[in-house]
UniProtKB/TrEMBL annotation:
UniProt protein name: HU family DNA-binding protein
Keywords: DNA-binding
Keyword Cell membrane: no
Signal peptide: none
TM annotation in the entry: none
Record's keyword annotation contains DNA-binding: yes
Single annotated GO MF: DNA binding
Domain of life assignment: Bacteria
InterPro entries: Hist_DNA-bd, IHF-like_DNA-bd_dom_sf
Amino acid sequence: MPVTRSEEPKVSKREFVQRVSKRAGLSLRTTQLAYDAIFEEILELVNAGNRVTLTGFGKFYAQPHKGHDVVLNIRDDAHARGHVDDYAVLKFSATRDVNKRVTVPPRSRDE
């Protein structure tokens, strides 16, 4: 049976920054500043229409979506409608080499 999102182990931003700090031998403060700067820069560049390519890792880009009509709450009113305006989402596409390095944790015998 597949693992649901709620069952997946999670790593918080704080834990992630601590792990990177230890791996790089940098202070926690320096690592936090770098983390914030990297992700703000990626968002700023993508919002300006750029595709951000990190060679050997992958690319970040905006994927546009068309607006559409939606049913708001069919239980209360089957005719309640709304509209979602056009929007974009941040996408990431890993390189082939990075994808080859991703592994699936072994399943327990109970699954």
